[in-house]
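Chapter review. Work through the record for HTH araC/xylS-type domain-containing protein before attempting the end-of-chapter questions.
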Amino acid sequence: MDILKQFNDAVKYMETNLCDEIDVDRAAQIACVTKVSFIRFFSYICGMTLTTYIRCRRLTLAAYELRNSDIKVIDVAMKYGFRNIDTFTRAFTKQHGITPTQARNPYQSLRIYPPVSFHIMIKGAKEMNFKIIETEKIKLRGVSKQFSCTAENRFEQEHIMWGIEQDDYMMRVNKKIPGTWYGIWDRGTYWIAKAEEDACIADTETVYIPEGTYAVFTTNHGGFAGDELPKLRELIFDSWLPDSGYTQAYDYEVEVYHLFTKEEKWKRYYEIWIPVKA
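Structure tokens for HTH araC/xylS-type domain-containing protein:
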């Protein structure tokens, strides 16, 4: 659709000029709409104002730059359009929950906003809670099944394994649902597992999460895994990964399920771990 291309071209213009003054009139002209229409359409579709989006993108890039270089905080602030370091620090802390200096620590979590792109469904422009971790090898016990799909398309077969085939897999690991569970995709094999001390030894095999560097993403609380994990993975691979400076190290993913009783199901949340290299 031409209108989608025009709006994506307008976003590319803004992305190219995040370190400079962004001319909204020029962006609207690229999108072939009036300035008022461009601002209204953007806010309606993305769920945030254009001004907020531009600020969040600048603060996202500023966080990446502080983490990956020795640039001074004041220089980053000026580069992304903040008049003084105090204004920058307040805005940065409000978005990321940490100060610019703390952001240099690679193990601190950041709240990043990938660039928006317009398709039939809008991608990007959503807050993502992520952190980079270094982990030693983690020993688990679980049961596995060979899937006939790619990592991207695994969730339907996962749903069957966790749900319909629960007695054949999940209940062999531990008959109590609340607690921390792991779903591991390893080049076509999928594991349901728990920490060794929480698993039934007789009916399970040893499986390890390899040591290494992982990007860890966390969902909001209260949702269903079958809804939250596919959405989170799509956002990671369509929006975060292309913009992050990292690549996936190999065809391997870890899902962490933090499950609670029915009375406390609002507490449940999930994580996806992706092995990465810079």
